[in-house]
Structures are given as C-alpha cells and as structure tokens.
Design a protein that fits this description.
single chain; Ubiquitin-like (UB roll); DNA polymerase, domain 1; alpha+beta; 5 helices; five-stranded mixed sheet; binds FE2/S2 (inorganic) cluster
C-alpha cells in the first residue's frame, strides 16, 4: 500500500508517493532527485545519508519517509552555512562521498553548541565515517566555521 502526501524539503512542499516501508533516503534521492544524501552502509553506521529533520541531524537510511510527514527536512542542497566553505578551505574531503553527511552533522553541532570543546566536536562527529580523509581536517573545518561565526557576531 502506498501513501500520496506532501513533504516539506528545503522549505518547499513536494508531492511524493511512497510505500509505508520506504526510507526517507530513497524518497529524497529517487523521487525528488536530491542525491546529496548518500547511501553508504544503510544500517546507521556511516552517516553518509545524514539530513536534518526539525533541526536535528538524522540518518535518512534509518528514517521512514512516513515519519517525516509534517516536519521540516533540510538536505545539503538547501543548506547555506559557513561550514561548507570551511570544508573547502581546510581540505576536509578527498572523494567527497561522506562530505554531505558530515556537513549536515557539523551544521547541527554548530546550531546546538555555540562553543563546543575539542572533545565535544570529536564525540559529535563519531556518528559519521570517512574512509579516505583524515578526521583532523574535518575537526579543523568545524573550528574554523566556529571562529568565523564568532567574528560575525
Ligand atoms: S547509509 Fe545511513 S548511516 Fe550509513
Ligand atoms: S572523503 Fe572519501 S569517504 Fe570521506
């Protein structure tokens, strides 16, 4: 059985049709063409599929599309955050497959913690896995985005 409904994605209402068992990741990618969230492990370990729902980072491979009805879904395609430039400046990626998920999770960190310690940054990023770059560059990107946001206050 399928459901025809509206999802609010990146501030826009989108009509979608999916089965109750469909995961949000598949609906975003294959119905809406939003391919920034990536399929990695598909079991909650890697974070490549991370999006934000109502301001909280969530793994879209573990989220049923039906659970996202009536909520604000933000994907990398709709994000405008200094963390994106910081990833570029700090060379915080190589192949880039994990990058959208990391950036969405870093965005969530910066929204929830105005002055995270190095330990908090490390712990927060534990939900994402990168198979090719060093994690140091990613942590540096978070610190540099924090520095930028403090400068602009
Ligand atoms: S694909 Fe969702 S956590 Fe790996
Ligand atoms: S940059 Fe390649 S997996 Fe992270």
């Amino acid at each position: 059985m399928s459901v025809s409904t509206i999802l609010v994605v990146n501030g826009e209402e989108k009509r979608v049709i999916f089965r109750y068992a469909d995961i949000l990741l598949d609906v975003l990618r294959y119905q809406l063409g939003l391919t920034g969230a990536k399929p990695g492990c598909l079991n909650g370990d890697c974070g490549a599929c991370t999006v934000n729902i109502n301001g909280v980072s969530q793994k879209s491979c573990l989220t049923l599309a039906v659970e996202a009805i009536g909520k604000d879904i933000l994907t990398i395609e709709g994000l405008n955050d200094p963390i994106q430039g910081a990833f570029v400046d700090q060379f915080a990626f190589q192949c880039g497959y994990c990058t959208p998920g990391f950036i969405m999770n870093c965005h969530s960190l910066l929204e929830h913690r105005k002055d995270p310690s190095n330990h908090e940054i490390k712990k927060w990023l534990e939900s994402n896995i990168c198979r090719c770059t060093g994690y140091l560059e990613i942590e540096e990107a978070v610190k540099s985005a924090l520095h930028l946001s403090k400068k602009h206050k």
